[in-house]
Protein backbone atom coordinates (compact mmCIF):
# COMPACT_ATOMS: atom_id res chain seq x y z
CA UNK A 1 0.00 0.00 0.00
CA UNK A 2 2.87 2.36 0.82
CA UNK A 3 4.00 2.94 -2.74
CA UNK A 4 0.56 3.47 -4.24
CA UNK A 5 0.81 6.20 -6.80
CA UNK A 6 -2.04 8.64 -7.16
CA UNK A 7 -2.62 9.52 -10.79
CA UNK A 8 -5.87 11.44 -10.63
CA UNK A 9 -6.91 13.85 -7.93
CA UNK A 10 -10.17 15.79 -8.13
CA UNK A 11 -10.79 18.49 -5.56
CA UNK A 12 -13.93 20.49 -4.87
CA UNK A 13 -15.27 20.17 -8.40
CA UNK A 14 -18.37 22.21 -9.18
CA UNK A 15 -20.11 22.01 -12.54
CA UNK A 16 -23.28 23.64 -13.76
CA UNK A 17 -25.32 23.60 -16.95
CA UNK A 18 -27.23 26.52 -18.43
CA UNK A 19 -30.72 25.53 -19.46
CA UNK A 20 -33.87 27.43 -20.49
CA UNK A 21 -35.29 26.74 -17.04
CA UNK A 22 -32.24 27.94 -15.13
CA UNK A 23 -28.82 26.82 -14.02
CA UNK A 24 -28.51 23.11 -13.13
CA UNK A 25 -25.90 22.64 -10.40
CA UNK A 26 -25.05 19.11 -11.49
CA UNK A 27 -21.78 18.55 -9.60
CA UNK A 28 -21.44 20.02 -6.12
CA UNK A 29 -18.02 19.77 -4.53
CA UNK A 30 -16.78 16.39 -5.73
CA UNK A 31 -13.46 14.99 -4.41
CA UNK A 32 -12.08 11.83 -5.97
CA UNK A 33 -8.77 9.94 -6.05
CA UNK A 34 -7.55 7.27 -8.41
CA UNK A 35 -4.35 5.28 -7.91
CA UNK A 36 -2.25 3.44 -10.44
CA UNK A 37 -3.43 -0.08 -11.24
CA UNK A 38 -6.55 0.28 -9.07
CA UNK A 39 -10.23 0.31 -9.86
CA UNK A 40 -12.78 2.72 -8.53
CA UNK A 41 -16.50 2.63 -9.13
CA UNK A 42 -18.87 5.57 -9.10
CA UNK A 43 -22.39 4.45 -8.26
CA UNK A 44 -25.68 6.24 -7.84
CA UNK A 45 -29.13 6.58 -9.32
CA UNK A 46 -29.77 8.12 -12.70
CA UNK A 47 -28.96 11.83 -12.69
CA UNK A 48 -26.63 11.69 -9.68
CA UNK A 49 -23.72 13.07 -11.72
CA UNK A 50 -21.63 10.01 -12.60
CA UNK A 51 -21.37 10.74 -16.31
CA UNK A 52 -20.84 14.46 -15.89
CA UNK A 53 -17.93 13.79 -13.51
CA UNK A 54 -16.22 11.44 -15.94
CA UNK A 55 -16.91 13.67 -18.91
CA UNK A 56 -15.18 16.49 -17.04
CA UNK A 57 -12.19 14.17 -16.57
CA UNK A 58 -12.07 13.70 -20.35
CA UNK A 59 -12.74 17.37 -21.07
CA UNK A 60 -15.89 16.56 -23.02
CA UNK A 61 -18.59 18.46 -21.14
CA UNK A 62 -21.62 19.50 -23.18
CA UNK A 63 -21.33 23.02 -24.56
CA UNK A 64 -23.86 24.41 -22.05
CA UNK A 65 -21.74 23.08 -19.15
CA UNK A 66 -19.19 25.07 -17.14
CA UNK A 67 -16.65 24.04 -14.55
CA UNK A 68 -17.38 26.72 -11.96
CA UNK A 69 -14.51 25.77 -9.67
CA UNK A 70 -12.22 22.95 -8.64
CA UNK A 71 -9.24 21.04 -9.98
CA UNK A 72 -8.72 17.77 -11.84
CA UNK A 73 -5.02 17.04 -11.45
CA UNK A 74 -3.68 14.29 -13.59
CA UNK A 75 -0.19 12.76 -13.32
CA UNK A 76 1.73 11.00 -16.03
CA UNK A 77 5.24 10.28 -17.15
CA UNK A 78 6.54 11.82 -20.32
CA UNK A 79 6.98 8.97 -22.78
CA UNK A 80 10.33 10.27 -24.02
CA UNK A 81 12.00 11.78 -20.96
CA UNK A 82 10.24 9.77 -18.27
CA UNK A 83 9.72 13.06 -16.41
CA UNK A 84 6.80 13.12 -13.95
CA UNK A 85 4.22 15.71 -14.83
CA UNK A 86 1.13 16.90 -13.04
CA UNK A 87 -1.45 18.95 -14.86
CA UNK A 88 -4.84 20.37 -14.07
CA UNK A 89 -7.14 19.26 -16.87
CA UNK A 90 -9.47 22.16 -16.07
CA UNK A 91 -6.76 24.58 -17.20
CA UNK A 92 -5.90 22.76 -20.44
CA UNK A 93 -6.80 24.16 -23.84
CA UNK A 94 -9.05 22.20 -26.17
CA UNK A 95 -6.02 21.46 -28.37
CA UNK A 96 -4.03 20.06 -25.47
CA UNK A 97 -6.96 17.98 -24.28
CA UNK A 98 -7.30 16.49 -27.70
CA UNK A 99 -3.61 15.87 -28.14
CA UNK A 100 -2.68 14.71 -24.65
CA UNK A 101 -5.72 13.43 -22.84
CA UNK A 102 -8.66 12.24 -24.84
CA UNK A 103 -8.24 8.75 -26.24
CA UNK A 104 -4.59 8.90 -25.39
CA UNK A 105 -3.84 9.08 -21.64
CA UNK A 106 -7.48 8.58 -20.72
CA UNK A 107 -9.76 6.40 -22.83
CA UNK A 108 -13.41 5.64 -22.49
CA UNK A 109 -15.59 2.59 -23.13
CA UNK A 110 -19.25 3.52 -23.50
CA UNK A 111 -22.33 1.51 -22.76
CA UNK A 112 -23.49 0.87 -26.27
CA UNK A 113 -20.75 -0.25 -28.64
CA UNK A 114 -22.96 0.54 -31.64
CA UNK A 115 -22.94 4.25 -30.89
CA UNK A 116 -19.18 4.44 -30.34
CA UNK A 117 -18.28 2.52 -33.48
CA UNK A 118 -18.55 4.03 -36.92
CA UNK A 119 -20.89 1.79 -38.95
CA UNK A 120 -19.33 2.80 -42.26
CA UNK A 121 -15.73 2.06 -41.39
CA UNK A 122 -13.98 -1.32 -41.15
CA UNK A 123 -12.96 -2.57 -37.72
CA UNK A 124 -9.32 -2.48 -38.78
CA UNK A 125 -9.41 1.18 -39.72
CA UNK A 126 -11.18 2.11 -36.51
CA UNK A 127 -8.55 0.39 -34.37
CA UNK A 128 -5.66 1.76 -36.44
CA UNK A 129 -6.73 5.38 -36.74
CA UNK A 130 -6.10 6.62 -33.18
CA UNK A 131 -2.56 5.21 -33.31
CA UNK A 132 -1.89 6.92 -36.61
CA UNK A 133 -3.35 10.18 -35.30
CA UNK A 134 -1.90 10.30 -31.78
CA UNK A 135 1.37 8.47 -32.22
CA UNK A 136 1.99 9.11 -35.92
CA UNK A 137 2.46 5.40 -36.42
CA UNK A 138 2.85 4.21 -40.02
CA UNK A 139 0.06 2.20 -41.54
CA UNK A 140 2.07 -1.02 -41.29
CA UNK A 141 2.96 -0.47 -37.64
CA UNK A 142 -0.64 0.44 -36.79
CA UNK A 143 -1.84 -2.66 -38.62
CA UNK A 144 0.48 -4.92 -36.66
CA UNK A 145 -0.52 -3.36 -33.36
CA UNK A 146 -4.21 -3.56 -34.29
CA UNK A 147 -3.81 -7.29 -34.87
CA UNK A 148 -2.13 -7.68 -31.47
CA UNK A 149 -4.88 -5.66 -29.80
CA UNK A 150 -7.64 -7.74 -31.35
CA UNK A 151 -5.92 -10.85 -30.07
CA UNK A 152 -5.51 -9.23 -26.65
CA UNK A 153 -9.26 -8.64 -26.43
CA UNK A 154 -9.95 -12.23 -27.40
CA UNK A 155 -10.95 -11.85 -31.04
CA UNK A 156 -10.01 -14.89 -33.05
CA UNK A 157 -9.34 -14.68 -36.75
CA UNK A 158 -8.15 -11.13 -36.20
CA UNK A 159 -6.93 -10.59 -39.74
CA UNK A 160 -10.30 -11.46 -41.17
CA UNK A 161 -12.15 -9.40 -38.54
CA UNK A 162 -10.14 -6.31 -39.45
CA UNK A 163 -12.01 -6.24 -42.77
CA UNK A 164 -15.45 -6.56 -41.14
CA UNK A 165 -17.89 -3.74 -40.43
CA UNK A 166 -19.47 -3.39 -36.96
CA UNK A 167 -22.86 -4.78 -38.00
CA UNK A 168 -21.18 -8.06 -38.96
CA UNK A 169 -20.23 -8.70 -35.32
CA UNK A 170 -22.22 -9.68 -32.22
CA UNK A 171 -22.76 -7.22 -29.36
CA UNK A 172 -20.07 -8.84 -27.20
CA UNK A 173 -17.59 -8.79 -30.09
CA UNK A 174 -18.34 -5.15 -30.76
CA UNK A 175 -17.66 -4.27 -27.14
CA UNK A 176 -14.32 -6.10 -27.43
CA UNK A 177 -13.51 -3.92 -30.45
CA UNK A 178 -14.41 -0.79 -28.49
CA UNK A 179 -12.04 -1.93 -25.75
CA UNK A 180 -9.30 -2.57 -28.33
CA UNK A 181 -9.77 0.97 -29.68
CA UNK A 182 -9.66 2.39 -26.16
CA UNK A 183 -6.39 0.55 -25.54
CA UNK A 184 -4.80 1.46 -28.86
CA UNK A 185 -2.91 4.47 -27.51
CA UNK A 186 -1.78 2.80 -24.28
CA UNK A 187 -3.89 4.92 -21.93
CA UNK A 188 -3.16 5.07 -18.19
CA UNK A 189 -6.81 5.42 -17.28
CA UNK A 190 -9.75 3.54 -18.71
CA UNK A 191 -13.22 4.89 -17.98
CA UNK A 192 -15.97 2.31 -18.42
CA UNK A 193 -19.45 3.84 -18.55
CA UNK A 194 -21.96 1.03 -17.94
CA UNK A 195 -19.80 -1.14 -20.21
CA UNK A 196 -21.98 -4.23 -20.00
CA UNK A 197 -25.53 -2.88 -19.67
CA UNK A 198 -26.34 -3.51 -23.33
CA UNK A 199 -25.03 -7.08 -23.22
CA UNK A 200 -26.62 -10.30 -22.02
CA UNK A 201 -25.58 -11.71 -18.68
CA UNK A 202 -23.06 -14.35 -19.74
CA UNK A 203 -21.32 -11.93 -22.11
CA UNK A 204 -21.34 -9.27 -19.36
CA UNK A 205 -19.25 -11.47 -17.10
CA UNK A 206 -16.78 -12.20 -19.90
CA UNK A 207 -16.30 -8.54 -20.74
CA UNK A 208 -15.72 -7.67 -17.07
CA UNK A 209 -13.15 -10.47 -16.82
CA UNK A 210 -11.48 -9.26 -19.98
CA UNK A 211 -11.18 -5.70 -18.66
CA UNK A 212 -9.70 -7.07 -15.42
CA UNK A 213 -7.18 -9.24 -17.25
CA UNK A 214 -6.02 -6.36 -19.43
CA UNK A 215 -5.89 -4.07 -16.44
CA UNK A 216 -3.47 -6.42 -14.69
CA UNK A 217 -1.31 -6.89 -17.77
CA UNK A 218 -1.01 -3.17 -18.40
CA UNK A 219 -1.24 -1.84 -14.85
CA UNK A 220 -4.18 0.33 -15.88
CA UNK A 221 -6.34 2.38 -13.56
CA UNK A 222 -10.02 1.88 -14.22
CA UNK A 223 -13.09 3.96 -13.38
CA UNK A 224 -16.43 2.19 -13.63
CA UNK A 225 -19.59 4.23 -13.76
CA UNK A 226 -22.58 2.10 -13.06
CA UNK A 227 -25.80 1.77 -11.14
CA UNK A 228 -25.29 -1.99 -11.00
CA UNK A 229 -23.86 -2.84 -7.61
CA UNK A 230 -23.41 -6.43 -8.74
CA UNK A 231 -20.82 -5.21 -11.26
CA UNK A 232 -19.19 -3.06 -8.59
CA UNK A 233 -18.85 -6.01 -6.22
CA UNK A 234 -17.03 -7.98 -8.92
CA UNK A 235 -14.55 -5.37 -10.08
CA UNK A 236 -13.93 -2.43 -7.77
CA UNK A 237 -11.26 -1.79 -5.14
CA UNK A 238 -12.93 1.45 -4.01
CA UNK A 239 -16.49 2.67 -4.30
CA UNK A 240 -17.80 6.24 -4.50
CA UNK A 241 -21.51 6.62 -3.88
CA UNK A 242 -22.97 9.70 -5.55
CA UNK A 243 -26.19 11.50 -4.80
CA UNK A 244 -27.42 14.77 -6.30
CA UNK A 245 -23.98 15.81 -7.55
CA UNK A 246 -22.05 14.88 -4.39
CA UNK A 247 -20.08 11.89 -3.23
CA UNK A 248 -21.89 10.95 -0.04
CA UNK A 249 -19.90 7.86 0.91
CA UNK A 250 -16.59 6.44 -0.21
CA UNK A 251 -14.59 3.43 0.92
CA UNK A 252 -13.07 0.11 0.00
CA UNK A 253 -15.33 -2.48 -1.49
CA UNK A 254 -15.57 -4.26 1.89
CA UNK A 255 -16.34 -1.05 3.76
CA UNK A 256 -19.16 -0.15 1.39
CA UNK A 257 -20.65 -3.63 1.10
CA UNK A 258 -20.29 -4.85 4.68
CA UNK A 259 -20.22 -1.67 6.76
CA UNK A 260 -22.17 0.96 4.80
CA UNK A 261 -23.02 4.04 6.87
CA UNK A 262 -24.99 6.44 4.69
CA UNK A 263 -28.76 5.81 4.52
CA UNK A 264 -28.58 6.39 0.77
CA UNK A 265 -26.01 3.60 0.43
CA UNK A 266 -28.31 1.43 2.56
CA UNK A 267 -31.08 2.19 0.07
CA UNK A 268 -28.93 1.33 -2.95
CA UNK A 269 -27.76 -1.93 -1.37
CA UNK A 270 -31.31 -2.85 -0.38
CA UNK A 271 -32.47 -2.16 -3.93
CA UNK A 272 -29.80 -4.39 -5.45
CA UNK A 273 -31.36 -7.42 -7.10
CA UNK A 274 -30.43 -10.53 -5.19
CA UNK A 275 -28.46 -13.10 -7.11
CA UNK A 276 -30.15 -16.26 -5.98
CA UNK A 277 -33.38 -15.42 -4.17
CA UNK A 278 -35.99 -14.24 -6.61
CA UNK A 279 -38.79 -14.35 -4.03
CA UNK A 280 -37.16 -11.40 -2.25
CA UNK A 281 -39.28 -8.31 -2.48
CA UNK A 282 -37.17 -5.72 -4.19
CA UNK A 283 -36.84 -2.50 -2.26
CA UNK A 284 -36.94 0.90 -3.95
CA UNK A 285 -35.78 4.11 -2.32
CA UNK A 286 -38.91 6.24 -1.81
CA UNK A 287 -39.22 9.60 -3.55
CA UNK A 288 -37.06 11.10 -6.27
CA UNK A 289 -33.78 13.03 -6.36
CA UNK A 290 -34.03 16.83 -6.12
CA UNK A 291 -34.21 19.06 -9.16
CA UNK A 292 -30.79 20.69 -9.14
CA UNK A 293 -32.08 23.86 -10.76
CA UNK A 294 -33.17 24.84 -7.28
CA UNK A 295 -30.59 25.47 -4.62
CA UNK A 296 -30.29 22.54 -2.24
CA UNK A 297 -30.75 23.53 1.38
CA UNK A 298 -29.15 21.21 3.89
CA UNK A 299 -28.61 17.55 3.01
CA UNK A 300 -30.00 16.82 -0.47
CA UNK A 301 -31.06 13.32 0.62
CA UNK A 302 -33.01 14.48 3.68
CA UNK A 303 -36.50 14.49 2.07
CA UNK A 304 -36.08 10.80 1.17
CA UNK A 305 -34.31 9.78 4.34
CA UNK A 306 -36.38 8.36 7.19
CA UNK A 307 -33.37 8.81 9.49
CA UNK A 308 -33.02 12.53 8.68
CA UNK A 309 -32.30 14.86 11.59
CA UNK A 310 -33.55 18.43 11.98
CA UNK A 311 -30.15 19.81 11.10
CA UNK A 312 -30.29 17.98 7.74
CA UNK A 313 -32.96 20.41 6.60
CA UNK A 314 -30.76 23.41 7.33
CA UNK A 315 -27.09 22.50 6.85
CA UNK A 316 -25.18 20.39 4.40
CA UNK A 317 -23.30 17.74 6.42
CA UNK A 318 -19.51 17.72 6.57
CA UNK A 319 -17.54 14.64 5.59
CA UNK A 320 -16.50 12.35 8.43
CA UNK A 321 -14.01 9.50 8.53
CA UNK A 322 -15.48 6.32 9.95
CA UNK A 323 -13.53 5.76 13.18
CA UNK A 324 -10.62 3.40 12.66
CA UNK A 325 -10.52 3.74 8.87
CA UNK A 326 -8.30 5.86 6.63
CA UNK A 327 -10.39 5.12 3.55
CA UNK A 328 -14.02 5.15 4.64
CA UNK A 329 -15.67 8.59 4.52
CA UNK A 330 -19.30 9.56 4.92
CA UNK A 331 -21.12 12.86 4.42
CA UNK A 332 -23.98 12.61 6.87
CA UNK A 333 -24.95 14.29 10.10
CA UNK A 334 -25.60 10.81 11.48
CA UNK A 335 -21.82 10.48 11.80
CA UNK A 336 -21.66 13.41 14.22
CA UNK A 337 -20.71 12.35 17.73
CA UNK A 338 -23.93 13.78 19.17
CA UNK A 339 -26.21 12.21 16.57
CA UNK A 340 -28.55 9.45 17.69
CA UNK A 341 -27.16 6.03 16.90
CA UNK A 342 -29.04 4.46 14.03
CA UNK A 343 -28.42 1.02 12.60
CA UNK A 344 -28.99 -0.11 9.05
CA UNK A 345 -32.34 -1.86 8.44
CA UNK A 346 -32.39 -5.40 9.80
CA UNK A 347 -33.28 -6.90 6.41
CA UNK A 348 -30.22 -5.28 4.84
CA UNK A 349 -27.97 -6.48 7.69
CA UNK A 350 -29.14 -10.05 7.06
CA UNK A 351 -28.63 -9.67 3.36
CA UNK A 352 -25.09 -8.33 3.70
CA UNK A 353 -24.20 -11.03 6.23
CA UNK A 354 -25.41 -13.64 3.79
CA UNK A 355 -23.37 -12.11 0.97
CA UNK A 356 -20.33 -12.05 3.17
CA UNK A 357 -20.76 -15.70 4.13
CA UNK A 358 -21.11 -16.66 0.50
CA UNK A 359 -18.11 -14.55 -0.43
CA UNK A 360 -20.04 -12.49 -2.99
N1 LIG B 1 -26.03 19.07 -21.10
C1 LIG B 1 -26.77 19.13 -20.01
N2 LIG B 1 -27.63 20.15 -19.81
C2 LIG B 1 -28.36 20.24 -18.68
N3 LIG B 1 -28.28 19.39 -17.66
C3 LIG B 1 -27.45 18.35 -17.79
C4 LIG B 1 -26.64 18.16 -18.96
N4 LIG B 1 -25.91 17.03 -18.80
C5 LIG B 1 -26.23 16.54 -17.59
N5 LIG B 1 -27.16 17.33 -16.99
C6 LIG B 1 -27.74 17.13 -15.65
O1 LIG B 1 -26.69 16.82 -14.74
C7 LIG B 1 -27.14 15.88 -13.77
C8 LIG B 1 -26.21 14.71 -13.72
O2 LIG B 1 -26.31 13.94 -14.93
P1 LIG B 1 -25.43 12.67 -15.25
O3 LIG B 1 -25.68 12.33 -16.68
O4 LIG B 1 -24.05 12.86 -14.84
O5 LIG B 1 -26.10 11.56 -14.35
P2 LIG B 1 -25.72 10.04 -14.23
O6 LIG B 1 -25.52 9.77 -12.79
O7 LIG B 1 -24.62 9.71 -15.15
O8 LIG B 1 -27.06 9.36 -14.72
P3 LIG B 1 -27.30 8.07 -15.66
O9 LIG B 1 -27.08 6.89 -14.78
O10 LIG B 1 -28.73 8.21 -16.08
O11 LIG B 1 -26.34 8.18 -16.81
C9 LIG B 1 -28.57 15.53 -14.14
O12 LIG B 1 -29.43 16.31 -13.36
C10 LIG B 1 -28.67 15.92 -15.59
O13 LIG B 1 -29.97 16.26 -15.94
TrEMBL record:
Listed GO CC annotations: plasma membrane
Family indicated by similarity: Belongs to the ABC transporter superfamily.
PROSITE patterns: ABC_TRANSPORTER_1, ABC_TRANSPORTER_2
Classification via Pfam families: ABC_tran, oligo_HPY
A GO molecular function held by the record: ATP hydrolysis activity
Keywords on record: ATP-binding, Cell membrane, Membrane, Nucleotide-binding, Transport
GO biological process: peptide transport
Residue span, ABC transporter domain: 10-269
Record CDD domains: ABC_NikE_OppD_transporters
Topology term for the membrane: Peripheral membrane protein
Keyword Nucleotide-binding belongs to the record: yes
Main location: membrane
Protein known as: ABC transporter ATP-binding protein
Location relative to the cell: Cell membrane
InterPro entries: AAA+_ATPase (IPR003593), ABC_Ni/Peptide_Import (IPR050388), ABC_transporter-like_ATP-bd (IPR003439), ABC_transporter-like_CS (IPR017871), Oligopep_ABC_C (IPR013563), P-loop_NTPase (IPR027417)
